[in-house]
Amino acid sequence: MLFPKLRRRCVRPLLVSSLLILPGLISADSLIAQPARPRFKAIAIAEAGGIHKPFVDAAKLWLGKLAAAENFSVDYIQDTNRIDDRFLSQYQVFIQLNYPPYGWTPRDEAAFVKYIDAGGGWVGLHHATLLGEFDGFPMWTWFSQFMGGIRFTQYVAKFATAKVYVEDPQHPAMKGVPDSFVVDDEEWYTYDKSPRPNVHVLARVDESTYTPDTPIKMGDHPVIWTNLQHQGRNIYIFMGHHPELFQNPAFTTIFRNSILWAAHQ
After folding, report:
1. What are phi and psi of 250, to 5 degrees?
2. If you placed Cys at 192, which of 29, 75, 95, 151 could pair as Cys (CB 3.0 to 4.6 Å)?
3. Which of 175, 225, 185, 173 is nearest to 204 (CA)?
């Protein structure tokens, strides 16, 4: 008689996560242990050293935890040498983590523009609007227009605490963010003009709340915005000098929301 044991014992298949698992072939534990495929991939560019290194180090720790919680992957580069069409095609979000918009080669620039025009997501922080002639490099005109046609002028070198007001609470990047929040000891930038006519402003800083007060002001002062003239979802977040920002729930909520929104999640 063939397979006599099957006549005496019923073999009960296990159903785990809608997959049929036969005894002796694969265990439920081994299936559950397999990592889930990331929802999307992000690439973050950040300088290896400099005054922003403490912020970047804190950002990497925070991004690692966020990526695990939200099931996405994040890779890092320290310069633009690897940026070309093929490299960027791997990623759904480009995070410009305190990396300046100058010193890029024509190949790097062309690949980035193509990536944005093709719908690639972008989240830029702080140093990404250091637009002008720096370290012997000319200003990247396209990037200036991408940021609303602005040019960097100066910054509050002694830092200041100030209140930020949300202007578009309905935008996905502002979900769960209070109408206003305080940012401590930030290195506020000023520009030659407000980007408002060319971008959609999500939040502004109230310069009358600067503590200590400073004569370095620009009047209408957006600090978070998105440029709706481009195919790719993009958002600029001015704040990003001190690692203590990752203790500010408003900042981390905006950063998280922005990454997921840029990735169409």
Report:
1. -65, -45
2. 151
3. 225
Joined together, the tokens standing for residue 146 give: 């991408």
Report the predicted TM-score, pTM, of the whole model to 2 decimal places.
Answer: 0.86
d(CA 148, CA 13): 61
Secondary structure class of 10 (helix, strand, coil): coil
Measured at the alpha carbon of residue 173, what is the angle toward residues 168 and 176, in degrees to the nearest 5? 85
CATH number where 233 lies: 3.40.50.880
Considering the domain boundaries, does residue 151 fall inside one? yes
CA separation for the pair 3, 104 (Å, rounded): 70
**Residue 103: both structure tokens together:** 């010193």
Q: What is the mean pLDDT of residues 127-151?
A: 97
Sign of the Cα pseudo-torsion (6, 12, 14, 15, in order): positive
The closest alpha carbon to 248, from 196, 191, 200, 178, belongs to 178
Distances (CA, A) of 114 to 41, 120, 246: 18, 9, 32
Is the pLDDT confidence value at 108 over 80? yes
Q: Which residues constitute the domain of residue 73?
A: 39-262
Q: Phi and psi of 88, rounded to 5°?
A: -70, -25
- At residue 50, the pLDDT reads 86
- Total count of domains within the chain: 1
